[in-house]
Amino acid sequence: MKGSLVRGATTDDARLLHSVKPLRRTIFNRVFAAIYAPAILTLLYYHAKNAHLLSYPSLILCNPCPFILRPCSCIHVDPYKEPPIGVVNTALAVMAYDYPAEKISVYVSDDGGSALTLFAFMEAAKFATHWLPFCKKNNILERSPEAYFGSNHPCTSESEKIKMIYESMKVKVEHVLERGTVGDQYITSDQEREAFNKWSSNFTRQDHPAVIQVLVDASKDKDVDGYLMPNLIYISREKNKSSPHHFKAGALNALLRVSGSMTNAPIVLALDCDFRSNDPRTPLRVLCYLCDPATPPDLAFVQFPQLFQGINKSDIYNAEYKRLFQINMLGFDGVSGPNYIGTGCFFRRRSFFGCPTSLISPEIPELAPDYVVDKPIQSQSILSLAHRVASCDYENQTSWGSKIGLRYGSLVEDYYTGFRLHCEGWKSVFCNPERPAFFGDVPTSLIDALNQQKRWAVGLLEVAFSKYSPATYGVRRMGPLMGLGYAQVAFWPIWSIPITTYAFLPQLALLNKVYIFPKVSEPWFFLYAFLFLGAYGQDYIDFILAGGSVQRWWSDQRFWIARGLTSYFFGSIEFFLGCLGISASGFTVTSKAVDAEQSKRYDQGDLRVWGAFPHVRLPNVGSHNQSDRIFTRAR
Ligand SMILES: O=c1ccn([C@@H]2O[C@H](COP(=O)(O)OP(=O)(O)O[C@H]3O[C@H](CO)[C@@H](O)[C@H](O)[C@H]3O)[C@@H](O)[C@H]2O)c(=O)[nH]1
Ligand SMILES: [Mn+2]
């Protein structure tokens, strides 16, 4: 084992494409683990020895609750939760990557099947003819227009002109969204009209044909300076109520196939609509890993951390997940590599088709990762193949979802797919450059933050209790370190049990005069103190070394408890009800639409439980009326 690593894609030695060096605190972490583990064993011994001394009051709970939840496989994506202008910004920034334009193809998956989103992208394609040359000529770093115009940028006549074009596009898109339909006055060509005609009267989100629309064709469409632009293709896969669609994993597999049939690039970037590129040179950085002759051929993906902008000062909803997305990644990187976290990840297309040593050929040769597409993307044969592979029964009797592509069976398709790839023997690397490659948006309402976590909890338990459990299958396939690393995440929602217990046990013990901790005068007390301070101390140091603030660390601790009693608890219940066939879970997307009031409240650090509920404020760390209870002061 190499231990935790830091990587850099550029080094002082110009001959090296990338370098790896062990983290300095690795030794400290190991020593700490070596002391901490026996201390926990000692604690267990102490408990076993004293078990007979404790007499707990008996609690009999008898409350049969005869309710049945209806199974639901509805799709929750919609343009009001994921505003098209945000998705457009995501796409524009990657179209503007510093990379030969004709070698980039951007495929947008609209799982909500919305004409409004297609409209936004038609407008984006027109705006791109101005935006891409502007970025390249002026060597702009911030290539998402919203971020660029929102930042402190030099005001030239050119930038003012581009800003006006952007604003007028935005107004148009928002107007159409408000109206809910694309009015005739906005349709400028027969080609556009033909595309919108697909939204016939029986077209619904859950039931509609595949829509594949080439909006920019890299072989002929030029920007205002006369240079070719990258392909931009809108896709909404076919849906009907009788075929399972497998949520995001299904959407990504459809994307893999459609992109395979049209351009089949060997490197694939998976990027969520709420993330945007923050560095146009990211593809070059990735090539330093993927194309270095010194890199072993079993490297499946390069994962960037999920970093966020717009988190409030104390991160009240603990949306940053420093440990998950930044700290733990370094540790994984020292073994087989970090997990795939759903976004900001560059894959070798080959890694979706079987283990490094034996290729699993897809059902049609055109989808094989090494197939070279030699026809123009708008040719009849290519378009009809693309529609065929985007149909909802295409996957029947194929290996998609089981051995090929993103894996089905968990609501955390990212975690599960990364895990299965590692089990197949693939490796990954974590790339965390100084200038963040991507920035994402966080949920800014409590209900969204808790719901997102509940979905993760269900998804993780689906993996934890499957035949591919990291604790058994994972440990066997990847060895104890990777296996346990993955298992620690998979069983995470089980924390709801100790957290809920500790939420009530001390009070019950106090009322019933039962001692659950040793007295301060007893030597055993030091064991408790060491375990408590050691765990918090190490967590604190890791957090601060990863650039965190004391305030956010405190939020992290606080929210962990809150989630234990809510998201993890209800997620676990939902999972077990699902096992009994009583309920089915769905992928409720996190809302990315924020109104001015919600955003103001969030920036001020107000914590609102629900629209209809009284407004509660959390005490801030350091404020004079700090209290040790959560959810105090109702307003
Ligand atoms: O049926 C679905 C559901 C979601 N999505 C897309 O999936 C992405 C992620 O959805 P989001 O609601 O933003 O989920 P988060 O909880 O914020 O996302 C985290 O957790 C997910 C797993 O639960 C990962 O897929 C994400 O990459 C990761 O950022 C979005 O672009 C959605 O449009 C679909 O395409 N189809
Ligand atoms: Mn998201």
Brief write-up:
The chain has 635 residues and is an alpha+beta fold. It is built from 19 helices and 13 strands.
Question: What would your notes on this structure say?
Answer:
The structure is a single chain. A hairpin with a 6-residue loop joins strand 12 (607-608) and strand 13 (615-616). Helix 2 runs parallel beside helix 3 (115-137), helix 11 (413-423) packs parallel to helix 13 (470-478) and helix 17 runs parallel beside helix 18. The strands form five sheets. A four-stranded mixed β-sheet has the order 6-9-8-10. It has a domain at 77-236. The radius of gyration is 26 Å and the shape is globular. The model is unreliable at 54-76 and 610-635 (pLDDT under 50). With 635 residues, the chain is an alpha+beta fold. The protein has 19 helices and 13 strands. The chain is 42% helix and 8% strand. Manganese (II) ion binds next to loops. InterPro entries: Cellulose_synth (IPR005150), Nucleotide-diphossugar_trans (IPR029044). It comes from Salix purpurea (Purple osier willow). Mn(2+) binds at residues 248, 272. It is found in: Endomembrane system.
